[in-house]
Design a protein that fits this description.
There is one protein chain. By secondary structure, the protein is α/β, with parallel strands linked by helices. It has three domains: 3-139, Rossmann fold; 163-389, tm_1862 like domain (pyruvate-formate lyase- activating enzyme); 395-452, Beta Barrel (OB fold (Dihydrolipoamide Acetyltransferase, E2P)). It has helices at 12-27, 51-67, 78-82, 84-88, 105-110, 179-183, 191-203, 229-239, 257-265, 282-288, 294-307, 326-337, 366-389; strands at 3-8, 31-32, 41-46, 72-77, 93-98, 126-129, 132-135, 163-168, 187-188, 208-213, 244-247, 272-274, 312-319, 343-348, 395-404, 408-413, 418-422, 430-439, 442-452. The strands form four sheets. A seven-stranded mixed β-sheet has the order 2-1-3-4-5-7-6, sandwiched between helices.
């Protein structure tokens, strides 16, 4: 029986796609193996958000082909959708399958009899480059949404915190972002499917479930329903037995008063808000084609903090967008300084071919971008430490993960703090711990009780 291995690059949505691919390949009779060196089929599920993400994929293709020259390599995902010919000419690649045909990977990889992937435009696969077949078509004609739970990257035994993608694609047109052109329009997993998947995870013993998407707050807009994202969260709480639901990234305009009140008032929802910012400069936000202004963003963050005083509040922030001056960057730094953020994901602008920002004048020099990145990371580290200090001497609830460092077990608190507790403890257990200090980026605690066994 042929063995396969899937290697995922990038975001949680890509990891969720990878889990769905694994499900399809297992249904086709293939067996998952532990690494590419022992696989007959290797699937590289790619990201293309930055130039370095593209380079990581190319490096992996060459490494795998060198280590296991007899395996067949299938490249899929966002990079495959954006630039299939670029990938098809790399030695070792057998198939390039864009997001438009990702749901057909089982047929492609297994050579199903009679399979001939004609795309929505009536086009056959391209076999003109080095014998690699290319299955890519118009992503905006694509309506398929692959969904399967993916488990926390730190928990190889798959015992905690599965991530369920309930939305894909994006209708926004941010000037720096390649995602809409490689993932297509926003589309949602129907509520009945979401409930079924969550109930299935609960039945298998999972206690905390993360729901995610490319533009998660837009869930349901394509289903012809009047209900929106907050209604989805409420339905999950009412119709499943999930003990803790965690919401991944939601755009500021979708953190409605209804959603804030629901998260704040529901013990079953983690007190954690990730709200993409990108910039604190109004001028730069306009150039980015973002749909909110700094004062609107600040209003949402302050409402979240008032409703949930102990919540983790995080953001994505980009430095070095074309035309970003020292004054623009200082606006962003000061804006973040004045907000109750507890962590940041800081990114450096990377020009993506085909996006408006790639052709904009006044590109920021790399050394300037690097210095700005460092400044914001230092600010983020300080804010995180200040937030953590407020919990010393208090009790926090957390779920045990699978990692044990020899003396302590890693946990994750309701409000998204890494917490180490003494001793080895079974994964997927609720614990209550008294916080006694801080060690690097993590809290240190003494376990008082196991909340659920």
């Amino acid at each position: 029986m042929a063995g396969f291995y899937v290697e995922n690059f990038g975001c949680r949505a890509t990891q969720a796609d990878g889990a769905a691919i694994e499900r399809r390949l297992i249904e086709k009779g293939l067996t998952r193996v532990s690494g590419p060196e022992s696989a007959q089929v290797v699937v590289l599920n790619t990201c293309t958000v930055t130039a370095s993400a593209d380079q990581d994929v190319r490096n992996s293709i060459r490494r795998i082909h060198r280590q296991n020259p007899d395996c067949k390599i299938l490249v899929t995902g966002c990079y495959a959708q954006r630039s299939p010919q670029e990938l098809a000419v790399i030695p070792g690649v057998n198939w390039v399958v864009g997001n438009s045909h990702k749901h057909q990977i089982g047929e492609v990889a297994c050579g199903s009899p009679g399979f001939f992937a004609v795309d929505q435009l009536g086009m056959a696969p391209d076999t003109s480059s080095m014998g690699a077949e290319i299955f890519v078509s118009d992503i905006f004609a694509h309506t398929e949404l692959m969904a399967a739970p993916v488990f926390d990257a730190d928990t190889a035994s798959e015992k905690t915190r599965p991530n369920l993608k309930v939305q894909d694609g994006c209708n926004n047109r941010c000037s720096f972002c390649i995602i809409p052109s490689v993932r297509g329009r926003s589309r949602s997993l129907p509520i009945t499917d979401v409930i079924r998947e969550v109930n299935g995870l609960v039945a298998n013993g999972y206690r905390e479930i993360v729901i995610s998407g490319i533009n998660l707050g837009r869930w349901g807009r394509d289903l012809g329903q009047t209900s929106k994202f907050a209604a989805l969260v409420r339905r999950i709480l009412e119709e499943t037995g999930v003990e803790k639901l965690r919401i991944s990234s939601v755009e500021p305009m979708d953190w409605t008063d209804e959603l804030i009140d629901l998260v704040a008032g529901s013990p079953g929802v983690a007190k954690h808000a990730h709200v993409p910012m990108q910039s604190g400069s109004d001028r730069i936000l306009r150039l980015m084609h973002r749909k909110y202004r700094p004062w609107h963003y600040a209003d949402r963050i302050k409402k979240i903090r008032r409703a949930m005083p102990d919540a983790a509040i995080g953001a994505d922030v980009m430095v070095g967008f074309p035309g970003e001056t020292d004054a623009d960057f200082e606006e962003t730094r000061a804006f973040i300084e004045g907000l109750p953020m507890t962590y940041l994901h800081v990114f450096t602008f990377s020009a993506r071919p085909g996006t408006p920002a790639a052709a904009m004048p006044n590109q920021v020099p790399p050394q300037v971008m690097k210095a700005r990145n460092r400044t914001l990371r230092e600010l983020a580290a300080r804010k995180k430490h200040e937030f953590q200090q407020t919990f010393i001497g208090r009790e926090l609830q957390a779920i045990t993960l699978t990692y044990f460092n020899g003396s302590h077990t890693e946990c994750l608190t309701d409000n998204y703090q890494k917490l180490w507790v003494e001793g080895r403890h079974e994964a997927n257990q609720w614990v209550t711990a008294a916080v006694e200090g801080i060690d690097g980026e993590a809290l240190l605690g003494r376990m008082n009780e196991v909340a659920f066994v």
